[in-house]
């Protein structure tokens, strides 16, 4: 049992309802919720003084905070986490939201890149937040590998896939390359790569090289081991990160300090600084996950929340993710089903293409 779950079970019915009403009121209005407001909405008729005492207890427990000199309370990050884990009521996906997502994905869905661009635009539009979409690497079987020398310290690897897709990648080969070493390295890679995806080749590459290294001369072996751009960026399983709707976040923030934090967030995303932190979120299994404020390194400085869900291919392998970034005052109950449905739909469409 987590710390927040334990606290939730220890709250009595009145404290739990006061806490829930404060959080729901804050998420709806963005304003502190006062005791007089709660006297009109609580199921139990109690005085404002009694509610203030309960709110003070909740504040002492670290679940509520009183900003400035206001008599009202807002939830802390810890309080939001407890609410999301134990009290959040996730609504059914609204029929209008479903229709907008379906319409966005339905057009020309054979082009995965364009489809994911539309997904990002749809998510940011529906949620009034910023959307993130992790696009998968191309996972068709390799048909042919070829190396082209560009200069003494630069070379090009051409990957031709069985479905006709072609990728060109520049890398730095070992010094002393010759036309014969390029041919020998390409022949070796074609022997072990044909019919495999890039991921499959990466997994078996070291074993194959070790088993067949006697087939290569020293220069070609160095070329294969150090210069093959197929696995040069090991761990980079995604083609790109698509960010849409950043203006939504900038428009919500009025203070200069907050604007600067959000600009820094998007600058980091553009440069993919610390992006491994985000990629790791998709390795925890399927289902929607919610990260609030400092719970995730990438978003802690901007004080943002992230609702994210991975999507899978036909083999139930996680190949990407879709998510929404917004202020901690997100409508989690509405956004969770939107992200969940979108991730499942994207996974099905990509699986159907495969």
TrEMBL record:
<dbReference type="InterPro" id="IPR029016">
    <property type="entry name" value="GAF-like_dom_sf"/>
</dbReference>
<dbReference type="InterPro" id="IPR036390">
    <property type="entry name" value="WH_DNA-bd_sf"/>
</dbReference>
<protein>
    <recommendedName>
        <fullName>Heat-inducible transcription repressor HrcA</fullName>
    </recommendedName>
</protein>
<keyword id="KW-0678">Repressor</keyword>
<comment type="function">
    <text>Negative regulator of class I heat shock genes (grpE-dnaK-dnaJ and groELS operons). Prevents heat-shock induction of these operons.</text>
</comment>
<keyword id="KW-0804">Transcription</keyword>
<keyword id="KW-0346">Stress response</keyword>
<feature type="domain" description="Heat-inducible transcription repressor HrcA C-terminal">
    <location>
        <begin position="115"/>
        <end position="336"/>
    </location>
</feature>
<dbReference type="Pfam" id="PF01628">
    <property type="entry name" value="HrcA"/>
</dbReference>
<dbReference type="InterPro" id="IPR002571">
    <property type="entry name" value="HrcA"/>
</dbReference>
<comment type="similarity">
    <text>Belongs to the HrcA family.</text>
</comment>
<dbReference type="InterPro" id="IPR036388">
    <property type="entry name" value="WH-like_DNA-bd_sf"/>
</dbReference>
<dbReference type="InterPro" id="IPR021153">
    <property type="entry name" value="HrcA_C"/>
</dbReference>
<keyword id="KW-0805">Transcription regulation</keyword>
<dbReference type="InterPro" id="IPR023120">
    <property type="entry name" value="WHTH_transcript_rep_HrcA_IDD"/>
</dbReference>
């Amino acid at each position: 049992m987590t710390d927040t779950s334990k606290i939730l079970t220890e709250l009595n019915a009145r404290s739990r309802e006061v806490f829930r009403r404060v959080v729901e009121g804050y998420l709806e209005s963005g304003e502190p919720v006062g005791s007089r407001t709660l006297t009109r909405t609580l199921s139990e008729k109690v005085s404002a003084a009694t509610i203030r005492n309960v709110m003070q207890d909740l504040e002492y427990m670290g679940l509520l905070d009183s900003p400035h000199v206001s008599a009202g309370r807002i939830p802390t990050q810890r309080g939001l986490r407890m609410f999301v884990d134990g009290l959040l009521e996730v609504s059914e996906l609204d029929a209008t939201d479903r229709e907008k997502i379906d319409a966005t994905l339905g057009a020309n869905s054979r082009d995965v890149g364009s489809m994911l661009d539309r997904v990002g635009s749809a998510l940011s539009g529906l949620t009034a937040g910023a959307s993130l979409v992790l696009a998968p690497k191309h996972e068709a079987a390799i048909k042919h590998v070829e190396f082209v020398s560009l200069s003494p310290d630069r070379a090009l690897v051409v990957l031709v896939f069985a479905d006709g897709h072609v990728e060109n990648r520049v890398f730095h080969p070992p010094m002393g390359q010759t036309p014969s070493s390029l041919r020998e390295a390409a022949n070796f890679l074609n022997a072990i790569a044909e019919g495999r995806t890039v991921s499959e080749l990466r997994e078996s590459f070291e074993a194959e090289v070790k088993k067949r290294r006697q087939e290569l001369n020293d220069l070609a072996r160095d070329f294969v081991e150090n210069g093959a751009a197929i696995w040069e960026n090991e761990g980079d399983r995604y083609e790109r990160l698509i960010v849409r709707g950043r203006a939504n976040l900038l428009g919500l923030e009025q203070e200069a300090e907050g604007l600067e934090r959000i600009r820094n967030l998007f600058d980091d995303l553009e440069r993919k600084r610390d992006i491994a932190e985000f990629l790791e979120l998709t390795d925890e299994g399927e289902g929607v996950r919610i990260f609030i404020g400092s719970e995730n390194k990438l978003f802690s400085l901007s004080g943002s929340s992230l609702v994210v869900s991975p999507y899978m291919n036909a083999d139930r392998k996680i190949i990407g993710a879709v998510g929404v970034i917004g202020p901690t005052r997100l409508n989690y109950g509405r956004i969770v089903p939107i992200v969940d449905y979108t991730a499942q739909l994207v996974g099905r469409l990509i699986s159907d293409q495969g």
